[in-house]
Write a structure and sequence with these properties.
The chain is α+β, with helices and mostly antiparallel strands. It contains 4 helices and 3 strands. It holds the Pfam family rhaM.
């Protein structure tokens, strides 16, 4: 039996353009199947998004966050998705930076 290493858990913060809340949620109700496949093939195990007003908070569990972003940067399923998100987000993600997510400050330790 092969032991799979623990995934990275990365927190992200994005912000919607005013008035785009319902549209953002509608677009995310069902993502394109080819994007789902691309995310999973890039090592994403889970991706959850919470919204508070215009602020979006993401938690991504992924094998390797930097490798995932590199794999998705020019992926034919991700490019049109990012173009669509650019219409809704205050700051678009062009995958050009060294994004590492929000730094962890504290977490409840596991009991031994």
């Amino acid at each position: 039996m092969t032991h799979q290493p623990a995934p990275q858990r990365v927190a992200l913060h994005t912000r919607l353009k005013p008035g785009k809340e319902a549209e953002y949620e509608s677009v995310h109700a069902v993502i394109p199947p080819e994007l789902d496949t691309a995310l999973r093939e890039a090592g994403v195990r889970e991706w959850r998004i919470w919204r508070n007003g215009l602020d979006l908070f993401h938690v991504v569990e992924v094998d390797d966050y930097a490798a995932m972003r590199a794999a998705l940067r020019d992926h034919p399923a991700n490019v049109p998705w990012q173009a669509r998100m650019a219409e809704l987000l205050a700051v678009e993600d062009d995958y050009s930076g060294g994004d590492t997510g929000i730094g962890l400050v504290w977490e409840l330790p596991e009991k031994e």
